[in-house]
């Protein structure tokens, strides 16, 4: 039987998650926490549609919001939503909320705390959350481009809707929890006299306790400015997760096209 305390805990975490998710839904682009501007926001919408004999819908929305309450503190919220439908049957629905609080982001090396919450329809993840802390190293910091490397450690809990996994040692429990370490590489580059903008967010996240439990993701984007506040965007995301429900594939790939609306 499912523990009622576990269900209550999941419902409470979902309530917190939806509060985070809808903070900045109106406006995203990749925000640099070292910027001096007090408030920034943006909205990126990309997707794909095919009609006819086989109807296909792919939609992705990404928001970013940042707020600098003082010279020492910087809060950044990033949310993403991915939806896929084939033949009018839902194939995927992926929701992710990332929240960071940085201390002294103007320095070359600065600490941060983080909290992530997510759900995933195709992977049958009812709820995943993790909390942790780390430090960021500014490798490049110029007006037209920047590159940062971050290291962090987190505690994670994931609640699945099923109990049969691709690795048998995890069978029998809906909950998998672990401590993780994460290495991040984020960057943005203005090229060809600002006519082309490249950006990337890449991370590798192994468990510190279970050698077969790890994930990574590469999110790559190319933008072409149309107007001061609007860019045309091509986005590619490749994600891998080692522990999945039995008979599921471990990799996901998304290629989408759309627009990026920003407030700065």
If you had to describe this structure to a student in words, what would you say it looks like?
This protein has one helix and twelve strands, in the order H-E-E-E-E-E-E-E-E-E-E-E-E. With 264 residues, the protein is mainly beta. It has a single domain, classed as Beta Barrel (Porin), CATH 2.40.160.40. It has a twelve-stranded antiparallel barrel with strand order 1-2-3-4-5-6-7-8-9-10-11-12. A hairpin with a 5-residue loop joins strand 2 and strand 3. The N and C termini lie far apart (52 Å).
Q: What is the count of β-strands?
A: 12
Q: Count up the helices.
A: 1
Q: How large is the share of residues in beta strands?
A: over 45%
Biggest sheet, in brief?
Answer: 12 strands, antiparallel, barrel
Q: What is the ordering of alpha helices and beta strands?
A: HEEEEEEEEEEEE
- What would you say the CATH architecture is? Beta Barrel
Work out the count of structural domains: 1
- By CATH's scheme, which homologous superfamily applies? monomeric porin ompg
Taking pLDDT < 50 over at least 5 consecutive residues as the criterion, the unreliable ranges are 14-29
Q: What class would the helix/strand composition place it in?
A: mainly beta
For the biggest β-sheet, the strand order reads: 1-2-3-4-5-6-7-8-9-10-11-12
Helix content bin: under 10%
Task: Determine the oligomeric state from the structure.
Answer: single chain
Rg calculated over all Cα atoms: 19 Å
Which fold name fills CATH's third level, the topology?
Answer: Porin
Q: Which descriptor suits the 3D outline?
A: globular
The CATH first-level class comes to: Mainly Beta
